[in-house]
Structure formats: structure tokens, C-alpha cells
Amino acid sequence: MAWIVVLVVLAVVGYGIALYNRLVRARQMAEEGWSGIDVQLKRRADLLPNLVETVQGYATHEREVLQRVTELRNQARAVPPDDVAQRAQVEGLLSGAIGRLLAVVENYPDLKANQNFLQLQEQLATIENEVQMARRYYNGATRDLNVLVESFPSNLVAGFAGFVKRAFFETDEESRAVPKVSFPR
Question: Which CATH code of 3.40.50.720, 3.90.1150.10, 1.20.1440.20, 3.30.420.40 fits the domain covering 20-176?
């Protein structure tokens, strides 16, 4: 009879250890996903001054759009690294501002033909695609972690070990909208 109790206790402890290890793995996958987003966002932030400078040379009266991109870039860099929701909000606004900046370029044929600008635009498009891939990976890893943190019986181990839900990296509707550009006539 005692060996049955010992066997049950060992099974419960073993199951708890297995759940804990799954939680650790899920947390590490989410952290890896966030790291991937962070790297791409830093690459984009580093590219933006060159893009803004190139556009400034051609579009001298588009100061408002250029200033907004610069302001949002600085705001994005000031957000604490672990504040996913705030970072997603600011980065979403920055994406919208970049879209408006690129829409402004349509009025400047010489700029559209400038080799330096074309290379910067291509790099930006590549980075934006990589941000989206990293965001999907992070959100998938976060979903898996959050399911483990909330579902029974892994929620018991998660609560005991201090695991918490993570925020998804989501953008708002405004940042996904097609930019509207109007010029005085």
C-alpha cells in the first residue's frame, strides 16, 4: 500500500516537473520571439535617419511629415524594452508615419529615381517584412505560453513558479491604414 502512495507522489511530482519545463520552454520561445522583433525594430530605427535625410534634400516643404517620423523614432527608442504593449503602439504609429513619408515621395520624380533613396526604400521594405515575420513568431510563442499559464493543470504550476501571461505585439487600425496624402493646390 505504501509503495502505491509513493508511486502516485512520484507520478504527480514528475508531471509537475514536466509542466514546469514546458512553461520554461514556452517562456524562452516568447523571449526569443521578442528579441527578433526588437532586432528588426532597431534596424529600422537605424535606417530612418538616412531615409529622412535623403527625402529632406528633395522635399524641403514636407517638414511636418519628416518631423513626425523623427519624433516617433525617438519615442520608440525611449520605451522600456519589456513594455510590449507600449512598444507596439508607438511602433504602429511609426509604421503609419513611414507610410505617409513614402506616399509624399510620389510627388518627387527626381527623388523616386535617386539610387540612394531606392536602396534605402528597398532596405526598409525588407525590414518591414522581417518585422512582420518576427511579430507572427512572437505572437505564436506568446499564445502558447499564455495557454499554458491559463489552462489547468499547468496554471497551478505556473502560478506556483511565477509564470505570467505576456502581451501580444499588436498594431492598431490607424497604423495599418493606407496613408492619405493631400497637397495644397
Answer: 1.20.1440.20
